[in-house]
């Protein structure tokens, strides 16, 4: 640690004086601006303490000899405007002030400071720049400190504890900043505050052998490189990566030539130039023939300013110097406008000299741009948030007892996603898509239907073909042995109708397998209903014929009149016709259609046939159940009738299987979705058809093929016995 003197000169600030002198020189040489009027200026020392500015303010309001406020009778060198210092506290103490740099919003209060004008209204632009900077880096957990004030000491000894330097409140404030989990700190204040911060951070690094680890954002009031407190910046590691908002500037023609023309041996009334020259070039400005008392090099006046580092002196006009330059021109233009107005009034009234009444208005910033984008090195971006970013698939949830930016990250609700970070709400997927497991993007739903390629579909197709081949074989056997007693005894025509209807019932299963289309949806349920009605009607007709045949054997029974094809044809044609009428009404009023169900299954869209009317579907099933129940009752009553080939008991078992299958079908059908529901209906069709085929025809095939000696009429059996 070294010795710190708060009153040492700051060479870079000398450019502010040169900027004002250059502006005054240009104004006086401009024949169009304030003709026949020469402007001058006087520089006062503020001594870095705002309270001492009151003495300077009194001297502005008094004569040169004594300070009598509001009594100034000098005839020359009357001040018309005052440009403030580098410190906002200085401006607080002054009354007649034309500011060029300060951004303190309190100075805009015209009640408290009626004659203060800000030439550069940069306060709100600076705030906008900082906000955009924070938004760009997504920093929302920020430390903010305004006007750090640390009492300076003459000497700071090496390894001294920071607690010996700072007051208790200042220690608490600094430790609060350094211990906070906010990694970004905005510091607002003037150059003195920056010096105070540098002292504190230097002491902290020296005492703890660590760095602050913070990103410091400095406001425009802090001229980073123009610090009279000469630290070795490479050693002060806490400020590595600091960001500073700079004041706008632009090249001023002739200013660099003006600087190059400066010569300490020809100061032209500039008392600061020789001292400044000695400081920046480390030489002595001596009169001819004199020798430097400390043996230093004598300044030649030929030293080159371009060799000076920018921290000592910048050959280009800085932002603050540019504000001084503009302030001087603002005063000149205001005086020119007032002088021109008074001159016209004086000419009208015959006066020779105009009396000046000043009316100065502040300049306005015409460019809204407050942030210039620069490319940063590809390093890790500092993280300064009270919580981590909510990842895609999460949503912010603000707790009532925490700041709005300190939210919680919770997973998106079901059926919603978020594909960006820190979203306030999750969005639902389109109806044909669904969220992935992480809920950060939507996936197109797969079409779900009973396809031929599926294992279940392949199994049902195989079973259908097997039953179709089996039924066809039975039909061939019955056709081949159509003249045998067992075939003739059970009404061959009804047998053929029943077998053909079973063949068609098995084939109608293919309407349910595969991708549902308009035609397949339109005819699958109605075809199944009509064909099964035909099959059950055939069974009913066979059972009725068995009962009537037995009754006809009794003498005087009128049942003989009913025997014959008219009755069987009426049953076989009439019962399916009623079902056909119901199906026609169904197709006309509520036709089934293909439908996509996006909600029943996760990740899949069910492509199914919508029945159009659930009531009509259950009406068809109810009528089919009614026919099966009648057939079962009639067959059950006729199961013990004496007949060598009485098939009533086989019909009873077949109807029992048929009814059991479809009674089981209803709850299973209602509890499943998608292709499982379709598979249940196909299986019910195959199982009920197989029940009719097996219970009615397999016993007969057994006799025909394996026990032909039993395939005899009653007369043949009696003759064989005799």
From TrEMBL:
Gene Ontology MF, one: G protein-coupled receptor activity
Ranges where the G-protein coupled receptors family 3 profile domain occurs: 456-720
Xref: CDD domains: 7tmC_V2R_pheromone
Gene Ontology CC annotation, any one: plasma membrane
UniProt superkingdom: Eukaryota
Positions of transmembrane segments: 456-479, 494-514, 526-551, 571-590, 616-638, 650-670, 682-705
Keyword Repeat: no
Similarity field: Belongs to the G-protein coupled receptor 3 family.
The protein, known as: G-protein coupled receptors family 3 profile domain-containing protein
